[in-house]
Write a structure and sequence with these properties.
five-stranded antiparallel beta sheet
C-alpha cells in the first residue's frame, strides 16, 4: 500500500511545490474571474512520500470517465482514478502555484499570499499566508481529520473555487475566491458574506543563532600489550619396550627312508 501511494503521488505531482511564487503575468495584466460549477472540482490534500501534504485540485472536464471517487467521512478519502488511464481531455489537475492562487474581494493576490497545508490538532488546514509575514493568515478549508491518505478539503462557507479569465477567455488557473477583503485592508467588515474566514496572527520569523562548530577530537590510540606465548611443559619421555627376539623353531631332521634289500634270485 505504501509503495502504491508513493507511485500515485509521483504520477500526480512529480516534484511540484506548494508555494505561490511570483507570477510575472499578474504584474503585467489585470485578470478577471469566471464562476465554475463546484461539483465538477475537488480540493485534495495529497500526502507527500516523506511526510506532510501538498495541495491538489482535480477537475472533471468531460464525463467520459470518472476522475476521482470519494468514500468515508471526517475525513473524506479520495481515490485519484485519473492516474489509472490517459486523462487528456477528460480530467484537469493543478498541483502548484502555476495552477492556483487566492482572490479576495475581486483582487488577485497571487503575489501577496501563499497557500500551505498545516496539520493542527489532527486536522489538515488549508491556509493563506502573507508573503511578507506582516499581515494575518486566513483559513480557507479543512479536512476534518487526518488519515495520511488522499483527503478532501472542504472549503469554509465564505470560500469557493473559480477560474482566472483574461479578456473574456477562461484560463486553466484556479482561484480560491472570497468576497471578503484581505485581513487588515480598509473596508474589510470581517463577515460581510456570513462565512467562516478566520484571521490568525502570523508571527514574524526570527533568525535562530547557529551553533559554532567544534573541532572533533581525534582519539589517540592506546598501545596494547603484545600477548606473550604461555610456556608449555616439556613432555616426559615414555620408556620404550625392549624388543625381544622371536624364538625360531629348531629344524628337525627329516628321516630318509632306506631301501629294503631284495633277494636276487639264483638262476
Amino acid at each position: 500500500m505504501k509503495h502504491s501511494l508513493v507511485r500515485t503521488v509521483a504520477a500526480l505531482a512529480g516534484s511540484a511545490i506548494l508555494t505561490l511564487g511570483a507570477i510575472g503575468s499578474a504584474k503585467a495584466f489585470t485578470f478577471d474571474e469566471t464562476e465554475i460549477s463546484q461539483d465538477r472540482v475537488i480540493v485534495v490534500a495529497q500526502p507527500r512520500p516523506y511526510g506532510g501534504y501538498q495541495l491538489l485540485i482535480l477537475e472533471q472536464v468531460s464525463d467520459k470517465r470518472q476522475c476521482w471517487s470519494e468514500s468515508g467521512s471526517n475525513p473524506v478519502k479520495v481515490a485519484p482514478l485519473l492516474v489509472t488511464f490517459d486523462f487528456t481531455g477528460i480530467c484537469g489537475r493543478a498541483t502548484d502555484s502555476n495552477g492556483f492562487s487566492i482572490r479576495m474581494a475581486g483582487t488577485d493576490l497571487a503575489l501577496k499570499y501563499t497557500l500551505s497545508l498545516e496539520t493542527v490538532d489532527g486536522n489538515v488546514l488549508l491556509m493563506g499566508t502573507p508573503v511578507d509575514y506582516q499581515g494575518k493568515s486566513v483559513i480557507i478549508g479543512r479536512t476534518n481529520g487526518d488519515v495520511n491518505d488522499f483527503m478532501k478539503i472542504s472549503l469554509d462557507p465564505a470560500w469557493r473555487l473559480s477560474k482566472r479569465a483574461y479578456q473574456g477567455r477562461t484560463l486553466g488557473h484556479f482561484y480560491f475566491t472570497t468576497n471578503q477583503s484581505a485581513p487588515g485592508e480598509i473596508g474589510n467588515t470581517g463577515g460581510n458574506t456570513g462565512g467562516n474566514t478566520e484571521a490568525i496572527p502570523q508571527p514574524i520569523p526570527t533568525v535562530l543563532p547557529q551553533p559554532i562548530p567544534q573541532p572533533i577530537p581525534i582519539p589517540i590510540p592506546i598501545p596494547q600489550p603484545i600477548p606473550q606465548p604461555i610456556p608449555q611443559p616439556l613432555p616426559i619421555p615414555q620408556p620404550q619396550p625392549i624388543p625381544q627376539p622371536i624364538p625360531q623353531p629348531i629344524p628337525q631332521e627329516i628321516p630318509i627312508p632306506q631301501p629294503i634289500p631284495q633277494e636276487i634270485p639264483i638262476p
